[in-house]
Specification:
heterodimer, A: 673 residues, mainly alpha, 2 domains, two-stranded antiparallel sheet, 4 strands, globular, B: 100 residues, 3 helices
Amino acid sequence: MPDLIWIVALIPAFPLLGFLLNALFIRRERAAGLVACAAVVLSFISALIAIYALQSQPVAAGGAAEGAAAQQIDYVLWEWISVGAFRVPFGFLFDQLTAVMTLLVTGVGGIIHIYSIGYIRGDVRPVRFFAYMNLFIAAMLFLVMGDNLLLLFLGWEGVGLCSFLLIGHWFDRRSVPPGIVPSEAAVKAFVVNRVGDAGMLLAMIAIFAKFGSLSFFTQHGLGAAPIPGFLDPAQVAQAAFGQVDLGIFGSINVMTAITFLLLIGVTGKSAQVPLFVWLPDAMAGPTPVSALIHAATMVTSGVYLIARNHVLFTAAPTTQGWVLTIGVLTALLAATAAVAQWDIKRVLAYSTVSQLGYMVAAVGMGAYVAGMFHLLTHGIFKALLFLGSGSVIHGTHDTQDMRRMGGLKDAMPTTFWTYLIGALGLAGIVPLAGFWSKDEIIGQAWISSKATAIVLIATSILTAFYMGRQVALIFYGKPRDQNAEHAHESGPVILWPLIVLAIGTVIGGAMNLPWFPFLKDFLKPVFETPGAPPEAAESFNYAIAIVTTVLAVFAGWLGWWLYARLLANRIKVGREDPAHRYLGDIWRGMEIAWGFDWFYDRAVVRPYRAVARFLSETFDAQGIDGILVDGTGRLFGWLAQQFRLAQSGYIRNYTLVFLFGVIGLIGYFVFLR
Amino acid sequence: MVPTSYFILLSATLFTLGVLGVLVRRNALVVFMSIELMLNAANLALVAFAQARQSLGGQIIVFFVITVAAAEVAVGLALLVAIFRTKRTTDIDEISTLRG
């Protein structure tokens, strides 16, 4: 078999080509959709071939832990930047971690692209949509396949850009349910991401300053001197003794500083506390965008970043603690917010934030495989839920308020069943995928810190509750609106992706069953480096899992029962949730996600706008324009006006001046010379 | 002999009166007359010095000055007549349309 490692270059090349074709040449909706889907499907096939090529790579000799084989493909295209000691190649790294991410991105991405063909029919600008979707896939692939931090950052920024472009797809609409302005939501997403990106950039600078290189692993392929990689455990362990002097703030460990800066980047991109506020508003974009970007791929890049740099994080236990805290806090906080939402996509948005909290908590505990496992399963069932919600929205003629729905079970059966499977998967009901991945994390938590595990269990109870509530509000009871009464099932282009993802949710747990840890073994070469603490062998705690599942089933049933039976008659369009009557301000607090948005609005947005208004209206218009520009003009005008007074037109005045001049001259010549 | 300084003093007085006439009077003809007075005051000073230095040079210059004064008066009166045809007044304060 000839050497196939060049195939890795094709993986991002196809979506990039699709983007160029859609952006420059294609005009019709049908062609745009087909080209976009073909690009992603071809990319998926290339990824499969690349995995085959990866498996047939020779095992690297040095640097391997006992039993773990380091297999990597590092395909360098060209020397991107070469300035003195700063050398960055444009190369693709394809190892096991990249492989699973690539399969997720292209696989789920492909399914979503197919779904989009049906969803975007009749839209005002479909070609732009497909172009940016392909660009997003390309950027995400650069992110996961980059062999150095700079290429990763290129992808990082690229997905942020595409997120902005796609959230603002309907930029001409003044408002989209539930009252968000798409262009403002897009700007919010980008700006909040930017805060994280600033941390990421500082981290890159710090890593370069400390290690002299941005490449993950040592590269040899360019003829010139090899570029050292910074993910060498021995090197990192040694660096962990360094301190950074912060002047009056004391000094901080180098690794803690670097990983903390990386954590800021993760917080922004993966929507953790306190930078999660962009995700709920990002629902202003079309549903496939929410499914792809804000459920399965872009938001998981933070988790990927930590997983990729796990060597750095293992050497910085302080930061690990912060990662864990942020993850757990986010999981709980977002779950409480999801309970109180009445927009169908906002529930799922907060749910995503919460599940991302699970993933971040997992990698914070050092349970990288568990985190990646949950990343994969979540990608599948969250995409399913979002696409299902899209089907509901389509079927009820663009209704998104759950108070207007109800009783759709009979009108949209396929959507109902797939949505139910997705909800059960998210709630973690055996034997669906979510059960295995979520309880893996909880099992790990039980070993490292009981308190963390308790909080995560509480969060999963809330998760089940709000999914039960959502299913009840949408599919059970009586239709509460005209649109719900006349709902129709969606077409096959929309339904088949749902069915495929539902099947994936059911069998997805097989990826990493406790007695058959396929994923864990696959990822062993990546995570079991010398010096890394091994993930606890038997971390899946059956007792805890059973207790959690029973509690989740009960909570899910309770959520369903409250909203389908007990309080069903009190759900009125445009009115508060019935639970508001009993919980009052607590419910209100949950609905506004405990005031983060309100706080940012008061503390950041308004002062910034005030400064901007001051600068534009006062400083610029009055100050610079008025004083410097107009003022100079007026000064000269005034001067000229004063000079004009001398031109009186009276001959006698002129003669007088004439006389003075003569006296002056004669006096000068007579007396001074 | 009359001391030269008396002539110079007279010349200066006449010149000053001429200047004042130009500055103060509004009738254009009077202004022209004052200019003539200034010129003649200068003539007087020149003749006085010529006599004091026993030189004819001063008197020659006087001839030139008289000629120039005559020519200038001709031109000036022509201008005044032209202006009078339009403005129907000899008040120089009325001729101020070239104001800035």
